[in-house]
Amino acid sequence: MSPIDEEQLQGLQGVRDFLRIRTSYDVLPLSFRLIVLDNDLLIRKSLNILIQNNIVSAPLWDSHNGRFAGLLTSTDFINVIQYYNQFPEQIDNVEKFRLSSLRDIEKAINVQTLETVSVHPSRPLYEACSRMLRSRARRIPLVDVDDETGRETVVSVITQYRILKFIAVNTEQHTSMMKRTIREINLGTYTDLATCKMTDSVLDVINSMVVRNISAVPVIDKNNVVLNVFEAVDVIPCIKGGAYEELKSTVGEALSQRPEDFPGIYTCQEDDRLDSIFQTVRQSRVHRLVVIDDNWHLKGILSLSDILKYVLFHGEEGDYFPQT
Ligand code: ADP
Q1: Residue range 208-223: average pLDDT?
Q2: Ordered structural domains, the chain, with CATH
Q3: Which of 29, 170, 258, 295 is close enough to 262 for a disulfide, judged by CB 3.0 to 4.6 Å?
Q4: Mean pLDDT, residues 38-57 taken together
Q5: Does the CB atom of residue 69 touch ligand 1 within 6 A?
Q6: What is the phi/psi pair of residue 39, to 5°?
């Protein structure tokens, strides 16, 4: 093995050891707010609450059984949209649906029900991270269970974004050892990319996100130049107030509704080294990187899960699991 690979592996090992001695509690800020929604709430109202509070997901609580009932995310709203499109005669009922009906909606449109994985906040971060990657969830709720009463408490939710940020900020001595370029370690997706144009309808883009189980699609022009990225969360303002018809609007129109504090999109090149990717993650609010060439032509996508999978599992025997 070359010295550069050896150093890279040593860096990876350092990060893994760090994740094994830290817990999800360590990732949480000292003070934070948590909005938990009752499963009996109307879906329409839950959407308004997310928008008013400037959040994109929330844990659900089953108050009849005093139990955690899963996580509400933009995927659920996308499912409601799909349902409405498949059963347009049901539009009046869509207004009456409660969060507890989300599972029935999934069944009706025949999408795979997401596992309601959760993790105890004092388990090692490595475990939280690997459970998240294995279940393909981008966020995982931290659920504490009282030993005596068995009662559950939702403590918080951690995301791939937060974990990667935590790694980038706290393990610079290890990530700075990762000097291989993303091309050399084949990190990211470069073939069969899902893309869209500014003039495509939001509905078409949503369909491709559902089919591919991805949460972002680069927006390109006719010369394959990257203009923007359409994200699953961009759907939320589009359907505000139950305006499901708005989805016929174009990607360009939807992107113009982004909040003012939208952090923008991040790019990288195939010759960028992993240590510099970590530097970007440390300094910015990165949710994925679009891989481009010198002229902004689209080359690929580097998602947070691509990076985390590499960091956790590269070179670990028996720990490889194929992408679906
Ligand atoms: P995201 O949440 O950013 O969509 P995921 O973690 O779901 O990313 O990505 C899952 C896999 O799909 C990753 O290997 C990623 O590189 C790939 N991927 C993400 N977006 C696209 C896209 N638009 N086209 C093709 N593959 C993609």
Answers
A1: 93
A2: 14-168 (3.10.580.10), 181-305 (3.10.580.10)
A3: 258
A4: 92
A5: no
A6: -60, -20
